[in-house]
Amino acid sequence: MLLENKTAVVYGGGGTIGGAVARAFAREGARVCLAGRTEASLEKVAQEIRAAGGEAQTAQVDALDERSVDDHADALALSAGSIDVTFNAIGSGDIHGIPVLQMPFGDFVQPIDDAIRSHFLIARAASRHMVPRGSGAILTITATTARQVIPEVGCTGVRFDAIESFCLQLACELGPSGIRVMALRTTGIPEAVRGAGPFPDYGTGRGGMTRDELIDWNQNKTMLKRLTSLVELANVAAFMASDQASAVTGSVVNVNCGAVRD
Fold first, then answer.
1. Mean pLDDT, rounded, for 105-112
2. Residue 252 pLDDT level (bands cut at 50, 70, 90)
3. How many structural domains are present in the chain?
4. Strand order of the sheet with strand 7-11?
């Protein structure tokens, strides 16, 4: 198993993406800690992992609160003996469908601020325990919006671009201590698209799209003419977190069916 005897923390582990990554980590032998603000959703995923024979615990953690993140990391490292992997799957509440010129500044900048704050706090707290051991993997998710030009997506492209730049800075500083940092850049994930619409038309002139139209519009932008699935994203996350990917750091891994490339 790829992650046997490793302790992995999934922040936002009760969500669609975080839950899928947590299940993959557990399947590969990791002791998984699901961290987030909503105990019920975290426990639901934890129960599914345990039912499948995996090991999972939950913790209520506010990833925007410095004390909450630090205290949890300290307690987990003490009880588990290590923190080997972190995965940040926390959403940021971006607002779509409004031109930037019509957006209040607060609506534009708040998701960026929340994203960078959570990534900074999580990475700092975990790396303080990884550095003395000389190993660790810090992962997160971004999307093709970081490299595409799409109108009326608010701060989304800026937010993902900022996260990717932050990962590069972390990789540079933490690499000499044996810690790897990566972002997984995906497409929109069909299983995570909620509701029937209408969704914004993102400059298509359609006047709003249904869920199926939005998925079709996105998948036509990819080389494979389909979108990344939850299973595919989770499988790549497990591999990149493992020692099989020990030479990979400072990378944005394109898990996006050929939508963009670097």
1. 95
2. very high
3. 1
4. 55-60, 31-36, 7-11, 85-88, 136-143, 179-186, 251-255
Model pTM score: 0.95
Within a domain: 57: yes
d(CA 87, CA 167): 12
- The rounded distance, in Å, linking the Cα atoms of 13 and 41 is 8
* pLDDT for 195 beyond 90: no
CB within 8 Å of 146: residues ≥ 6 apart: 157, 160, 161, 163, 164, 185, 252
Mean pLDDT of the chain: 95
Q: Is the dihedral of CA 212, 218, 224, 228 positive or negative?
A: negative
CA dist 138 and 89 (Å) reads: 12
Residue 155 lies in a domain: yes
SS3 sequence of 69-130: HHHHHHHHHHHHCCCCEEEECCCCCCCCCCCHHHCCHHHHHHHHHHHHHHHHHHHHHHHHHH
Any domain includes 33? yes
**How many CB atoms are closer than 10 A to CB 153?**
21
Cα–Cα nearest to 166, from 118, 200, 206: 118
What was the pLDDT predicted at 204? 81
CATH of the domain at 84: 3.40.50.720
User: What value does the mean pLDDT take over residues 219-243?
Assistant: 97
Domain housing 170: 7-196+229-255
What size, in residues, is the chain?
262
Q: Give burial (CB, 10 Å; 0-12/13-18/19+) of 206.
A: middle
Sequence-ordered list of residues with C-beta below 8 angstroms from that of 203, at least 6 positions apart, any chain = 150, 151, 152
Least confident of 16-30, 33-47, 145-159: 145-159
Q: Does residue 12 lie in a domain region?
A: yes
